[in-house]
Amino acid sequence: MIETFTYEALPIRVRFGRGAIAEAGVEVGKLGATRALVLTTPQQAAEGEKLGVELGAAYAGLFAGATMHTPVGVTEAALEALKASGADCVVALGGGSTTGLGKALALRTGISQVVIPTTYAGSEMTPILGETRDGQKTTIRSLDVLPETVIYDVNLTLSLPPGLTATSGVNAIAHAVEALYARDRNPVISLMAEDGIRTLSGALPILIHEPANLEARTQALYGAWLCGCCLGAVGMALHHKLCHTLGGTFDLPHAETHTIVLPHAVAYNAPAAPEAMAAITRALGAPDAAQGLFDLVRALGVPRALSQIGMPEEGIERAADIAVQNPYWNPRPVTRDGIRDLIANAYAGERPGAARSAEEAA
Ligand code: NAD
Q1: Is 312 found in the same domain as 289?
Q2: Domain end among 134, 157, 180
Q3: Per-residue pLDDT reduced to its tens digit, 63-119
Q4: Which residue has the least CA distance to atom 9 on ligand 1?
Q5: Relative to the CA of 126, which ligand 1 atom is closest?
Q6: Which residue range is the domain that position 286 belongs to?
Q7: Is pTM, for the whole model, over 0.90?
Q8: CA of 98 to the centre of ligand 1 (A)
Q9: Each residue's pLDDT tens digit, 263-273
Q10: Does residue 43 line the site of ligand 1, with CB under 6 A?
Q11: Which residue's alpha carbon is nearest to atom 15 within ligand 1?
Q12: How many Å lie between the centroid of ligand 1 and the Cα of residue 41?
């Protein structure tokens, strides 16, 4: 049912397609810029150099030091490189870590950003920046960090390994899931959310077996864009807060943590968000939202238990304490006992709820 709502569009120019990276130089020019510093992780430095060749005279150099969680020390080194290069624009080529570095530079200098995402994380569509200083992660929301232009090139996702394809894709699905029950949800974003879940959940199982399937890659990247729009437009709840706590406290990998926790967070919120659950089940083509997500993660063959990705068992109680320290809005009240059980289930990788299949019980 449509109720009163507010919808605010974010001013981002998007180009989507196979081979769209060839337009990077044109897009730099459209921003009124003439020299671009290319940003990558160390692992993607070669792709950054290749882009530099394509940019020609507009290439001001490469900073290949982006790392997970945007440590302030790395941003300071990148600021020096930016000054030395004389660039008037940055082009971030990579996943959420590289996008985060571009945003951190924009926050400090006001420089324009072209982002070329190569994972499904969705950071490029959000005015959100998480930064780490002395091991503490803080998050800000500001239009100052919103990229001006995003180029989605399906070809760049062909090299995503199956594991990262799966976890990054479920990370994207998590944005859409929480958008469907967000306090500030609206019908436009809910349309994008449902279609984002549908396209990604359809494409990911294909990509695990056929990573170079162009049609599935196109669907997945399109779905990731929709899910990124959801994250940028409305507030997130239990799932994102909990992943933030778990990732920060135990230094767990970002996309894997999201993938493991999502079915459990959805099971927790299900009784309080029936319309969202109906949309998720429609999108997944499954009879139940939490079970459908758990089955998707299972089919993708990636870790289903926090114990598998480095969380210590004694961390369950500590994480439950931290998770209820700073109250936030969630469709279902967040209780310590409830969250403790949720984390314990996710730690063990058990199916949410009691309905375990005979095959799993065996
Ligand atoms: P990532 O950017 O850390 O990338 C993981 C690894 O995969 C890196 O080594 C990277 O170089 C490599 N990689 C990326 N694309 C590849 C490709 N196509 N082929 C081969 N290798 C590739 O991972 P991520 O999950 O995209 O991003 C996680 C980070 O993004 C976290 O720090 C998270 O907090 C942040 N994030 C922020 C937001 C936001 O809105 N601010 C949203 C989502 C994620």
Answers
A1: yes
A2: 157
A3: 999 998 899 999 999 999 999 999 999 999 999 999 999 999 999 999 999 999 999
A4: 43
A5: 40
A6: 162-361
A7: yes
A8: 7
A9: 999 999 999 99
A10: yes
A11: 118
A12: 9
Q: State how far the Cα of 3 lies from the Cα of 253, in Å rounded to an integer.
A: 38
- Specify the residue with its C-alpha closest to ligand 1, atom 39: 123
Residues 17 and 132 in one domain: yes
Name residue, tokens 């479920």. 170
Query: Can you give 15-53 as a three-state secondary structure string?
Result: EEECCHHHHHHHHHHHCCCCCEEEECCHHHHHHHHHHHH
CB distance 165 to ligand 1 below 6 Å:
no
In a domain, residue 4? The reply is: no
Is residue 284 within 8 A of residue 201, CB to CB? The reply is yes
Ligand 1 neighbour 100 (Cβ under 6 A): yes
Return the closest-CA partner of residue 90 out of 102, 107, 73, 99: 102
At 331-359, the pLDDT tens digits run 999 999 999 999 999 999 999 974 444 34
Backbone torsions φ then ψ of 133, nearest 5 degrees: -130, 125
Whether 117 lines ligand 1, by a CB cut-off of 6 Å, is no
Question: Containing H/E element for 130?
Answer: strand 128-133
Ligand 1 within 6 A of CB of 129: yes
CA 12 – CA 125 distance, rounded (Å): 8
Of 150, 164, 165, the one to substitute when testing ligand 1's pocket (max ligand atoms within 8 A of C-beta) is 164
